[in-house]
UniProtKB/TrEMBL annotation:
InterPro entries: Enolase-like_N (IPR029017). This is Mandelate racemase-like protein.
Length: 53
């Protein structure tokens, strides 16, 4: 786990924006207190963002 920093030139910006907008519904209204302070909060949040089944 970690983070990613993306720099684009040209049309790559639209691709990165589309990816961020696709994740938006999964992140909006997420209780960050639960994510960072509950026993399985981070695991649940990570799974929601990375699993597609």
């Amino acid at each position: 786990m970690g983070h990613g920093l993306t720099f684009t030139i040209g049309r790559g910006t639209e691709v990165v924006l589309a990816a961020a907008l696709a994740l938006k519904p999964l992140v909006l209204n997420t209780n960050l207190d639960h994510v960072f302070n509950s026993a399985c909060g981070w695991e649940e949040f990570h799974r929601r963002l990375t699993c597609d089944s």
